[in-house]
Amino acid sequence: xxxxxxxxTGIGCxxxxxxxxxxxxxxxxxxxxxxxxxxLVDRLTxxxxxxxxxxxxxxxxxxxxxxxDWWNEALHGVG
Length: 79
Fold this sequence. Notes:
The protein has helices at 2-21, 33-43, 46-52; strands at residues 56-57, 68-69.
């Protein structure tokens, strides 16, 4: 009986390990770009979505989004 409990515990730990190591869908290159984008947008909060639409987008570390500056100038050519 004790051996079965140890075996079940070991199998449970392996299952948890595999689940925690899997990538979220937005990082899975096997999915289509639309599926990945929809998953990523669904994970963003309303505040994060609004912040990403600004000229200087802040980083969102929990999703792996880096800071980005969208500025360009069309008057003298795209800078």
